[in-house]
Structure formats: C-alpha cells, structure tokens
Amino acid sequence: MPLHKESRPSVAAARAYNLPVSPPDPVPQRRPKGGGLPFAKRIRLERDAYREWNVAFHLTIDAHPAARWPESLCAALWESIRTADRIELVAACLMPDHVHLLVRRNRLDIIEFLNEWKSWTTRLGWKHGLKGGIWQPGMWDTTIVGDGQFSAVHDYIVRNPVTAGFVEDALDWPWTWSRLWDD
Prior knowledge:
Elements: H1 11-16, E1 56-62, H2 71-82, E2 87-94, E3 98-105, H3 110-127, E4 140-143, H4 146-163, E5 176-178, H5 179-182
Antiparallel strand pairs: 1-3, 1-4, 2-3, 2-5
Helix pairs in contact: 2-3
C-alpha cells in the first residue's frame, strides 16, 4: 500500500475544509533518535481537558516511520477501532501511515483510551510479525468547537482517502466509517 504524502493536513487542505490554521507551537517538537521528522508532543493540552464529557476531539495518530502494516494487520487495526466501546467514536479513517479519529470520551478519557489502544494494537502488530512499536509517541489533536468545525473535521476525516488519491468516493475506502452514515 503506498504511503500517504503527509500525516496531517497542510495549510491549504485545512483552509479548503474551513479548519482553523494555528501557528506552529513555540516549543520545539521532540525528534526521534537519529534525527528525522518530529514526533507529536506527548500531550498537547492540560490533562483535564481530555477528561471533559461531551467534548469532541479530532485525533491523528501517526504510524512509526519503520512500520509497514500487512493487510491482515490493517483489518485487525480497523476492527479494534470500530469495536472500541471505551470512547464514543463518531468517525474514523485508517490510512497507510496514520489514523484519524473523531471521538468523545465514554468510560475512559481520551488519554486513557489512547494509551490502552496504542499498547494493545502494538501487541497486535507483534502477532502479525512486526518488531518494535507501530505508533509514534503522542498524537496530533484538535478540540472541536461548534457544529461548523465538527462538520468540517468529520468531512475531512471521511474524505481523507479521496484527497490522498486512493479512491474517488469515500465509501469505497474499506477503512473509513462514520456514525452519521449509519443514522
């Protein structure tokens, strides 16, 4: 499966979907050992922000640069996303080198869920023959403010495979789902 060209939306893509374009973080990002692209910060907001009920988050979780997911692992990762009942999943898209989630907390807060899910799916990757971690540390996250941003982020997530040129219709990508499609 070809790798997606970028792990998070470009400024042009963000503007195309009417997403806010924030300035770069004033704090330098951590770099992986040996150089390379920066990893996301471990936690971007105050810890309590991820514990709030009825607050939606757009999470982008990047694969480790060395991870190459076999088809069987993609199917298992997708199943783990779709059956996650410890958070409220609104929309999701698994891409070749990252995953997008539009979520709200449920039984676990967002950080607790993320830590458990990344740990469990890493062990799942080992069962599928991968060595080491399959995820980069941390995540990219956006707190959703208002219905307009919610709709824009939802559309960005489900259209991600179309924007990347993998399919012409979002419904044709096997690893895209929206609760809104089920309603």
